[in-house]
Amino acid sequence: MKEPVRGTKCLPDRSFSGYTPQQTGSELMAKHEKLIFVDLETTGANPVVDRITEIGIVEVQGEQVSRWSTLVNPQVPIPPFIQNLTGISDAMVADAPLFDELAEELLERLKGGLFIAHNARFDYGFLRNAFKAAGHSLRAEVLCTVKLSRKLFPEEMKHNLDILVQRHQLQADGRHRALADADLLWQFWSKMQREIAPEIFSQALAQLLQRPATPTHLAPEVLDDIPDTPGIYLFYGENNALLYVGKSVHLRQRVLSHFNGDHRLFQDMRMSQQIHRLEWRETAGELGALLLEAQLIKDLQPIHNRALRRQRELCAWRLYPLLDGTSQPALVHASEVDFGAAEGLYGLFSSRKKAEASLREIAEAHELCLVLLGLEKGQPGKPCFAHQLRRCRGACCGKEAAVLHQARLEAALASLKLATWPYPGPVALVEKAADGAREEAHVVHNWCYLGSAAAEADVWSLLEQSPARPAFDADTYKILVRAMAKKHVKVRPLPRRPDQAAA
Fold first, then answer.
1. Which residues of 206-216 are buried (b: 16+ CB within 10 A; e: fewer)?
2. Distance CA 290, CA 476 (A)
3. Structural domain boundaries of the chain?
4. What's the predicted TM-score (pTM) here?
5. Structurally, what CATH architecture does the domain formed by 6-209 represent?
6. CA angle at residue 168 from 28 to 120, to 5 degrees?
7. Strand partners, 440
8. At CB < 8 A and 24+ separation, what contacts does 250-258 make?
9. Residue pLDDT tens, the chain, 503 long
10. According to CATH, what is the number of the domain 220-300?
């Protein structure tokens, strides 16, 4: 049986002979027994479905620097492009230990140390999932060297490991192998200790390691499980009352921001005191998170969400023809007219008061007649009050042709015109995750969001279960218009029934 690459070596650091252990900072070393620089090689980017193939650790404790690495049998084939990238083949890991066999030894190595990695959530997430599957729990304070580089060099655009090697002239002994990459992180750390002013380095570490205050009623380990992916989160209070629904392309980062110790927002402080439970739902991307957030807030009415609650008086302007061939704006409500299918609507307003205020602003900006717009009363053929103040060009008293006033009105309203649904029926907006590991189809018809599906059968289920006239929502309409204008998602037209697809 071939012996896996695995072992421990205790050596003085060979990369930076001028480095002294005292430069690590007394406060940091007092809090952590050791610094642990970690890198993993894996079969893919998804910590839930992919597996670890190699672990590399550089451990720094006092004056001792030790290095340890091992191949890991992932029990699944390694994709060809991963084999080409890392040089780790199926044959190399065939006789390597399973992660279960390494779990206890690895936990002991990580115990009491500051876990340092590049894109640390990736490595930490993989290890947490692997330990969980092996019946163990990993909890460690984590520092990301990508974030550290951004803090120290905010003027630089890129901070991947290859860039750091070039920028700081690190000594790369191979790339995309776990121990070699972990050693590069140790080199980077050492060089920053030597070249960055101690107070600046300490401040950067303090900011990155500042842990949010966990809400009183939440178990601290719950926060460790939050993924740093797109999605939505829900905060629940006492008696399972829903407090808040939010969304982010970085779930973990956004949730933790609510619990910062300084509580810059009073709402965050008050809500933090009330939270008893939290949930999250991952999405393929930002569009799915935006749509799901808007839907849940409308449906569930969380206590602390106000901006996206359903607008019960949703209304818009529509031009109705008059006997003289012109037209006059009239207010129509979503409860009476299907805004998703209707044409010739202008603006979306939450109340008559706001709709009329908006039309008055347009009239003043374009010198339109408030009488002809139906906003004020006047006598036929007599100049309106605005005309006397030279704010109306006189369509009310014959000084401006009615057709010209009509043309200027339509031009002034053009920017408020609601986009007409551009498809003959429903569509699926197909959104893929950045790493390609997740794909969702957001089913939409007449600007109304019917739901998201990860499987083909679920798409048809959403269509079959949708009401004949889904409720039109102003926020969803705006989200969809922006997303479709940017063309960040693939649009797939759908028939109303699956049997129509075959036809």
1. eebeeeeebbe
2. 8
3. 6-209, 220-300, 315-416, 427-502
4. 0.69
5. 2-Layer Sandwich (3.30)
6. 50
7. 431
8. 251/226, 251/227, 251/280, 251/282, 252/121, 252/223, 252/226, 252/227, 252/228, 253/228, 255/223, 255/226, 255/280, 256/212, 256/223, 256/226, 257/212, 258/212
9. 333 334 433 333 333 333 333 334 445 546 777 999 999 999 998 887 899 999 999 999 988 999 999 999 999 999 999 999 999 999 999 999 999 999 999 999 999 899 999 998 889 989 988 998 999 988 888 999 999 999 999 999 999 999 999 999 999 887 889 999 999 999 999 999 999 999 899 888 888 887 666 777 887 777 877 888 899 999 999 999 999 999 999 998 889 888 765 445 556 667 778 899 999 999 999 999 999 999 999 999 998 887 666 566 899 999 999 988 899 999 999 989 999 989 999 999 989 999 999 999 999 999 999 999 999 998 888 999 999 899 999 999 999 999 999 999 999 999 999 999 999 999 999 999 887 778 999 999 999 999 999 988 899 999 988 887 888 999 999 999 999 998 888 999 997 655 554 44
10. 3.40.1440.10
- Kindly state the tokens that stand for 3: 């012996």
189 token code pair: 């750390």
* Tokens standing for residue 219: 């178990």
d(CA 487, CA 61): 52
